[in-house]
Amino acid sequence: MNHQPILRARGLSKRFSGFAAVQQMDLDVAEGSIHALVGPNGAGKTTCFNLLTKFLEPSEGSIWFQERDITRMQPAQVARLGMVRSFQISATFAHMSLLDNVRVGMQRAAGLAWQFWASPSRLRRLDERAMHYLDQVGLADRAQWLAVNLPYGHKRALELATTLALEPRLLLLDEPTQGLGHEDVERVAELIARVAKGRTVLMVEHNMSVIARICDRVTVMQRGSKLAEGSYAEVAANPEVVSAYMGEAAQEVAA
User: Fold this and answer.
1) Which end of the chain is more exposed for a tag (fewer CB within 10 A), N or C?
2) How many structural domains does the chain have?
3) Distance between terminal CA atoms of the chain?
4) What is the C-alpha to C-alpha distance for residues 137 and 132, in angstroms, rounded to an integer?
5) Are residues 60 and 113 in the same domain?
6) Residue 255: predicted pLDDT
7) Residue 25 structural domain
8) What stretches of the chain adopt beta strand conformation (E)?
9) CA distances from 198 to 1, 41, 165 (A)
10) Residues 63 and 109 in one domain
């Protein structure tokens, strides 16, 4: 793993009408790592993730991707630089085949970005690469299925394939296992570990067993600030982290 940061944030803050959702957040994501951003409910991790991916503008601070200042860039601009995110809700074209879903993600790089009316023969040259991405997520045998017919866990896999089709240097995953049953959680965790080879992944995730299994580094947030950072074993043994999560669990029981 290259320990040089591919993504850096310094003094990142976001205020909403005087409320500080994120406060003076520093973050380094090492190239080639799987890095998790975690914290109790209301810790500010989703706001921080949205700042890093440029879906929110920071009130203060700076963000650097591959030594380039992206603080004021738009999401589409950073995506073209190789920083691509997924969302909590699976986003696929329901009535298109899996193969066509992945090809859509590949059309910009192929110079066919807006040519949805292009003849099938012109798009066929993308098929081999699209099948490669489907194979990476275990869906090659269903390439001609309509996305609407996939079970939910497999839709997550398809979304991952379409994200990979954009050839990201940094893959940002927002709650990739949310809403999945145990079997699908295991499948998606395995897929993330597999596709992370040769890439960098930053993910917001609640499932600590997934984090323990696949993540190289974990940043824990609480009340908008960084509470702890290190390997899973290091943060899991941190008394402040244990207290923060115990407090959340106690509140859920009381409710």
Assistant:
1) C
2) 2
3) 43
4) 9
5) no
6) 35
7) 1-82+168-255
8) 5-16, 19-30, 34-38, 60-65, 68-69, 83-85, 170-174, 200-204, 217-222, 225-230
9) 9, 32, 14
10) no
